[in-house]
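User: Hi! I'm working on a homework problem where we have to compare a predicted structure to a textbook description. Could you give me the structure for the chain below?
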Amino acid sequence: MKKLLCLFILLFSQSSFAEDAIYTGFFSNKAVDGYDTVSYFTEGKPQKGNAEFIASYMGADWYFSSQKNADLFTANPTKYAPQYGGFCAWAVAEKNDRAPGDPNQFSIVDGKLYLNYDAQVKSLWERDIPGFIAQGDQNWPKLLKQ
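Assistant: Happy to help. Predicted structure tokens:
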């Protein structure tokens, strides 16, 4: 029982969550919950990826809706990967902390993809997107080191 408790604490501790540069959830290695990040730019909306079209980047599996999108991502992953590793952009900026990003709560600003925790948080983010981006860009490198 003691071993199970220790394993549980290790799996769900903030420190193990904080070490990840890409948000994948606890029991998955899918970046952006398996959504095709290229589709945000080409279709203007998120599309679920397909297990047929996967690329690895920064220790996570990225799913795509087509081979073409997988190829676009592979050629330039920093163009298509969400900022702050897919964690909630508002939380990174305002709270200097990590929270999951919801693939359906997104913004594309100056050619970069940002995710937010939920619709309510996205409305907070939209109050000062340039300010939150500036603060998030300062906070993110420090969060990566924690």
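For your comparison, note the following. The first strand starts at residue 35 and ends at 36. The CA atoms of residues 1 and 7 lie 10 Å apart. Good luck with the assignment!
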